[in-house]
Design brief:
Strand content: 15-25%
Helix content: 25-40%
CATH superfamily: Flavodoxin domain
CATH topology: Rossmann fold
Order of helices and strands: EHEHHEHEEEHEEEHHH
Largest sheet: 5 strands, parallel
Radius of gyration: 18 Å
Number of strands: 9
CATH class: Alpha Beta
CATH architecture: 3-Layer(aba) Sandwich
Bound molecules: flavin mononucleotide
Number of helices: 8
């Protein structure tokens, strides 16, 4: 059975749009037989990395000198095959999510290689993660708006020498609900999200058509801009 760890970086946690999209994704993965553990970055007490000497590489290999809730997360991450980074776009990331990403250094080997002109590392022996997947929601209209967050997830996978398994991206996610209830479009999108989670585990890949159905526009760009700019 595959095992996955998801970290939801939204400060709005269960009430947020990211949670709304992440829940069916996890459900789809579980339908396909995966065991998924979910953490909220804002619920964990994680201090920022303050070490400039790579203590976790040289002084105490594989171990962070800061003792906080990362101690709960490290063993979970070490034992997971799939790491799901779930986050809203926050120009670019919420601080709590960024802190956790910075604290992943103990999971990496102190062995840098140059690949295609870039310095890359790899996960230590004993870290089972073989792929990283991104689940992200944004408020603006276009999918290009996820560019920086997408790049961060791709860079993280490349730095750890694991596969980037793709991204579930939902722009103007708030429009999936009206008056606190899912719209028909919202329901349809979440069905596709569940399918994506299922495909990832069952087929090892999320299909392009599924990802496109998840990210499709729910409104025209002009109309959305008009809604945002109504206060002007
Ligand atoms: C500080 C902040 C910055 C944001 N920056 C962006 C942005 O650059 N692009 C975007 O599409 N949405 C942006 N948004 C909107 C959120 O990404 C969007 O509403 C998201 O779905 C919120 O997810 P959540 O409810 O899980 O927190 C921003 C929201 C906040 C509060």
């Amino acid at each position: 059975m595959s095992k996955a760890v998801a970290i939801n970086g939204s400060p709005r946690m269960e009430k947020g749009n990211t949670a709304m999209v992440l829940a069916p994704f996890i459900q789809g993965m579980m339908d396909a037989g995966s065991d998924v553990e979910l953490f909220y970055a804002s619920r964990l007490k994680v201090k920022p990395c303050t070490c400039s000497e790579m203590y976790c590489w040289y002084k105490s290999p594989g171990e962070c000198y800061i003792k906080d809730d990362m101690e709960l997360l490290y063993p979970q991450l070490r034992g997971a095959d799939i790491f799901i980074l779930a986050t809203p776009v926050y120009i670019p990331l919420p601080g709590e999510m960024q802190k956790i990403i910075n604290r992943l250094c103990p999971l990496l080997e102190p062995l840098l290689e140059t690949r295609q002109g870039r310095t890359r590392g790899r996960f230590r022996k004993g870290v089972e993660v073989r792929e990283i997947v991104l689940v992200s929601t944004g408020g603006w209209w276009e999918i290009g708006n996820f560019g920086t967050v997408l790049r961060i997830a791709q860079e993280l996978a490349a730095d750890a020498s694991v596969e980037f398994a793709g991204a579930v991206l939902r722009p103007h996610a708030f429009l999936m609900k009206k008056g606190g209830k899912l719209t028909k479009d919202g329901e349809d999108v979440l069905k596709e999200v569940r399918r994506a989670g299922y495909e990832l585990v069952k087929e090892g890949v999320m299909r392009k058509e599924t990802l496109e159905a998840i990210s499709r526009p729910l409104i025209s760009e002009d109309e959305l801009r008009h809604r945002y700019n109504r206060a002007l």
